[in-house]
Structure formats: C-alpha cells, structure tokens
Design the sequence.
C-alpha cells in the first residue's frame, strides 16, 4: 500500500482474483526464505481446520465501529485487513468470493454488535454454537438438491481483526476431534441423507428476493447429508437446525444430538486481536464464538469476514455475469 493512493487500493479490492495473483508471489518468496513452501501451508490448511496469523496487518486510526453488516468503511486499516485476507486465501488456492443472496453480495462484511432489541441485534451480541457457513449450499463437488445453479458453500471462512476490546473468543471445533468421540454407528447415521437444514438468517431475505417467497429454496430442506467421506477423512455441513429436529429414526436423532455434544467437548478458543487473521476450514471444522455483549458502535468488537473457495470447477451459471467474485444465488 506504500506509495499507492487509497483510491487505487480500493479499486484493487474490487478484483480480488487479480489482487491475489499480484500478492501471492511475494508471500511465496518470503515463505521460501523461511524454508516453507506454499504447498506445505496448503497441506496444513487441509489437515488442521484453523490457521491463526498474528499481527498480519497494521491497524492504525480506525473510524467508529460500524453498526451494520455493510458497508465496510473505507480507511487504510480496513483496506489492509481486506487485502491481507485476499492474499491469504490466494495462498491457499482459494478465490475470495461472496454470495448475491447474503448482504447484497458484498465481498467483506462487518461482524459487529447491532443496536436495538430485535432478533438480529440479540444474535449479534450473543454466543454462537458451532456451525459451518452457508450451510444451505452444497459442499464443493456436489450439486444442490433443488437447483444446480447454486454454488457450493465456502472452503474457508476468513476473519480479520480490527477491534476486540473484551478479548471475545472465536471457537473452532476440529471435525477429526469431534468424530473421535462418536461411535462408528453414529458416524454412519450422519452420512445418510436424512437431516433437515434451514438457510442461515443472513441468507433468508436474499433467497426470498431471488427465488420468491413461495419457493422451496427459501424453506427448510430435507434429505440432507451432514457428513461426507472425502479423501482419508470426512467433510462436514452442519448447523443446529440439524440437531434441533426429531427425525423418524431414533438413531438419526440421537446421532445428531451426540454430534452436538461432542462439538462442545472439542471446542478450542482463539482470540482474534486487531491485526490478526483467522482462517477456518469450513469443511474440516465448525466455528462459533463466545458472548460479545457491550454496546453497538464506539470501540466495540469489529471483525471483517469474507469467504474463500476453489472455484475451478464452477460453471458460468453459478456466477453473476456482472461481478468477478459474486456467486449464485
Ligand atoms: Fe459463521
């Protein structure tokens, strides 16, 4: 960013794929000096569900913490936070992406406490149980149950820290640890397509806008598989809606409940400090967080979130023609 105007930096963020290509060689060279290859890092990102980079970017003067998901205020520190996230994801062979149905397709959103009393405001300050993001969308390599234009959920969730005055923890539950607590019978139940998943709150209004209020694509979806055999392990697609239901089969219900309990037992905590980046593998782990609390605005907790996905297998119908990063729906 040195010697470049803020406007030029901002327009670079509109083309994350090109920016990633520009920044990646410098990262690769620095890693090589430390005797580490990009391949080593990529292997690790697909073995361990979290990478915590401390002081990855500089946080200088910041505006007040925003009180809405969008827009991200344009300031040097938020540009650095965004460019750094794009560079990290590019180093993992991931494109930085958004979905048109969530927060109007913005590439980065503020994770902050919201003002007022409504459900969203409460949710923004409360703790969160373990889940995977964009759970309504299929895992990469699978076609959506109802519409093949629907892009996969992200491979990675990337969080950049701007403020965290109360050291609120982000929690990550490694899938391999969780599964070690379960019986083979429970694992076999979770692999069967017999669960129910609802779109997460941030997607509901966008999905209704795109597909219409009466579309099955804005409603809970049945016949969902939670666990997928992948390579020598498993991938996960999970939100509590899966364990909050009772299913026809008692074995299905109790496997989901035991999975939820095992997640609580396997939770690790990370505090994202200003300048830190946390990359969570959305296939190999679940994430949540502790209570945020506090007041909206001012100097309250402020993270930026974006997503990473290997987009090489996507077809054109899974993108919006007017955007280099926005995926359908
Ligand atoms: Fe999440």
Sequence:
């Amino acid at each position: 960013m040195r010697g470049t105007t803020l406007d030029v930096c901002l327009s670079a963020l509109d083309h994350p794929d090109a920016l990633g290509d520009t920044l990646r060689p410098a990262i690769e060279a620095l890693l090589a000096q430390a005797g580490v290859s990009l391949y080593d890092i990529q292997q690790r990102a697909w073995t361990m569900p979290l990478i915590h980079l401390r002081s990855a970017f500089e946080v200088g003067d910041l505006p007040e913490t925003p009180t809405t998901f969008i827009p991200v205020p344009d300031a040097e520190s938020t540009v650095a936070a965004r460019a750094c996230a794009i560079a990290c994801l590019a180093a993992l062979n991931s494109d930085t992406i958004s979905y048109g149905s969530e927060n109007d397709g913005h590439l980065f959103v503020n994770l902050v406490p919201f003002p007022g009393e409504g459900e969203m405001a409460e949710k923004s300050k409360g703790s969160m149980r373990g889940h995977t993001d964009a759970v309504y969308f299929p895992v990469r390599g699978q076609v959506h149950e109802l519409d093949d234009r629907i892009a996969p959920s992200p491979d990675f969730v990337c969080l950049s820290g701007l403020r965290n005055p109360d050291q609120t923890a982000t929690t990550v539950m490694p899938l391999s640890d969780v599964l070690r607590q379960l019986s083979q019978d429970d694992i076999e139940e979770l692999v069967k397509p017999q669960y129910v998943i609802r779109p997460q709150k941030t997607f509901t209004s966008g999905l209704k806008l795109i597909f219409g209020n009466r579309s099955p694509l804005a409603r809970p979806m049945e016949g969902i598989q939670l666990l997928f055999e992948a390579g020598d392990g498993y991938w996960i697609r999970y939100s509590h809606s899966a364990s909050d239901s009772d299913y026809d089969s008692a074995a299905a219900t109790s496997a989901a409940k035991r999975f939820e309990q095992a997640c609580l037992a396997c939770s690790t905590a990370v505090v994202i400090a200003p300048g830190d980046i946390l990359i969570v593998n959305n296939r190999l782990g679940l994430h949540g967080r502790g209570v945020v609390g506090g007041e909206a605005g001012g100097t309250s907790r402020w993270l930026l979130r974006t997503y990473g996905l290997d987009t090489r297998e996507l077809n054109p119908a899974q993108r919006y023609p007017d955007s280099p990063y926005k995926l359908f729906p």
